[in-house]
Amino acid sequence: MGALAIGGALESSCRQDTLAWWLCERQTPGGGLNGRPQKDADVCYSWWVLSSLCLLERVEWVNGAALRNFILRCQDPEGGGISDKPGDEPDIFHTFFGIAGLSLLGTDGVEPIDAAHAMPLKVMQRLRKKQQDERKA
């Protein structure tokens, strides 16, 4: 989805409501998201599914409070970091995607992140300004 958005082809390449519906169906009863039916929720899908819904402008179609609670249950309160599922060992991959999910939800004071590039919005704004300045020069 990010590649389609970056390439300007998002609107012409999919049935957005159908895709958004399928993505929302990835939310499990425990609040997390999975990658396909009949699979367990995994924190990394807080990024993969939620960023796609953000790009489709349908993020409100999932229960954000339940997703936030799932992500926070995956935290290691003593050692830090976020795991794939509650009780598992945290790792950098799931920590990044968990924090990115919280950012896309707009919660917990996490800075906004660009849903297509997985970069903080302020970094993307700085890069775009630099490109514009270089074009003018």
Blueprint (SSEs and pairs):
Layout: H1 2-6, H2 10-13, H3 16-24, H4 45-55, H5 64-73, H6 92-105, H7 121-136
Helix pairs in contact: 4-6, 5-6
Feature tags:
single chain; 137 residues; Glycosyltransferase; 7 helices; mainly alpha
Characterization of this structure:
The protein is an all-alpha fold. It has one domain (2-136): Alpha/alpha barrel (Glycosyltransferase). It is 50% helix and 0% strand. The chain has seven helices and no strands. The protein has helices at residues 2-6, 10-13, 16-24, 45-55, 64-73, 92-105, 121-136. The chain is globular and about 55 Å long.
What's the order of the H and E elements? HHHHHHH
Architecture (CATH level 2) name: Alpha/alpha barrel
Q: Count the strands?
A: 0
Main beta sheet strand tally, sense and closure: none
Low-confidence stretches: none
Provide the gyration radius in Å. Answer: 16 Å
Q: Please tell me what the overall shape is.
A: globular
N-to-C span: 33 Å
Tell me what portion of residues adopts beta-strand conformation: under 5%
Structural class: mainly alpha
How many independent structural domains?
Answer: 1
The first-level CATH class is given as Mainly Alpha
Overall average residue pLDDT: 93
State the helicity in percent bands. 40-55%
Number of helices: 7
According to CATH, what is the topology?
Glycosyltransferase
